[in-house]
Write a sequence for this structure.
């Protein structure tokens, strides 16, 4: 009886291995079919004309991004320099702004009288 049992188990094991191999092959085939469909979709979507247009758009975006980064970097440098001058400089700038505004007001008032 034990021999019969082990023979049955061995036969069942072979059937399972065949089934696993068959399912694995089917899964591989399906994966290849999906990859092929994806490749077809991409090639249909991205024609040579579309790719060239996207390259132009990409280059323009990169150029604008570099320009913005340069502007940001310059602004940060100016701000750092301004902050390094301290509170005394800030007070002088405020005074200068007040005096300039006053002069513009006086100039405007003098122009009205004429």
């Amino acid at each position: 009886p034990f021999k019969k049992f082990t023979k049955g188990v061995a036969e069942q094991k072979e059937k399972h291995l065949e089934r696993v191999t068959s399912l694995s092959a089917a899964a591989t085939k399906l994966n290849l079919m999906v990859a092929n469909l994806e490749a077809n979709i991409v090639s249909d979507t991205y024609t040579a004309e579309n790719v060239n247009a996207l390259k132009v758009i990409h280059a323009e975006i990169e150029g604008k991004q570099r320009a913005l980064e340069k502007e940001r970097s310059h602004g940060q440098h100016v701000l750092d320099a301004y902050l390094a001058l301290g509170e005394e400089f800030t007070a002088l700038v405020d005074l200068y702004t007040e005096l300039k505004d006053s002069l513009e007001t006086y100039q405007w008032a003098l122009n009205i009288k004429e």
In short: Helices lie at 2-45, 48-85, 87-113. Residues 2-45 form the longest helix (44 residues). Residues 56 and 62 are 10 Å apart (CA to CA).
